Structure formats: C-alpha cells, structure tokens
Amino acid sequence: MMIYKVFRYVSFFVSSIDQYSVHSPIVFKLLIECIYKLDKKLILKDLSILEKSIRDIYLDEFEVNYIDNILSINISEFALKGDRIIIIKNIRKKNEYYLWKKIILDNKIKVSLDFYYFGLIINKSKNLQKQDYQIRL
User: Fold this and answer.
1) Greatest Cα-to-Cα distance within the chain, rounded to the nearest angstrom
2) DSSP tag of 32
3) pLDDT tens readout for residues 105-115
4) Which residue of 41, 50, 75, 135 is 20 to 30 Å from 112, comparing CA positions?
5) Where are the domains of the chain?
C-alpha cells in the first residue's frame, strides 16, 4: 500500500506543472496572488486560510466555498449556475479521488486544479474553456 502511495505521488509530481505553464489569467492570478503567497505547510494544515485569501482577492467576482468531505456532496451541486470557486480537501483518498475524477469530467465544470492534497474547482459562467490542471505547491 505504501509503495502505491509513493508511486502515485511521484507520478503526480512528474506530470504536474507550475504557475508559468498555466494559460488562464484567472488561474494564474489565483496561483500568484493567493496560493503561492501563503506558506505551503500553513495551507495544508488549515485550508480555511486559503479560503479567506481567495475571498479577499475575488470578493466581487466569485462565491467561495470550502468542502471538507467530497463524499457528502451531491455531484449536481458543483455545476450550479453562478461564478464559484470550490475548495475540496483530501481529493487523493481512494473513494474521494474517483468522485473527484467524475466531477472534473463534467463539461459544466470549467476549470479544475489538482494540488494533490486538495483541489479547486472554478466555475465561471463565461470566458472560460474547459481545463484541468495538476499543479505543484
């Protein structure tokens, strides 16, 4: 089991990108002004700090939600109308990962960011193409 986790992380690390490989201005701004400004250890310890940082930057543009357990949410709730950023904790656990993959395959979900330890979904009603990123912290 441990070898599988190590292999999965190495596989993620090899295929992931950094902020300079992102083509979306919204995602680049999110990475530069929110995520990379915060301490990685602090983010991983408490995702509500990231939620507050995103709210401060995107106050008028997006509604920001934090979900602790992806299994407790109805999949159709992710694709509701409105401009939203959803932070999801623990997307790499076995059952959560399969649900995460199912959610990001939905065409109504515009942008997904996989940071290995947590994920972000950005849903904007216009000006976004479907993109799924794996990004290193």
Assistant:
1) 45
2) I
3) 887 788 889 99
4) 41
5) 2-134
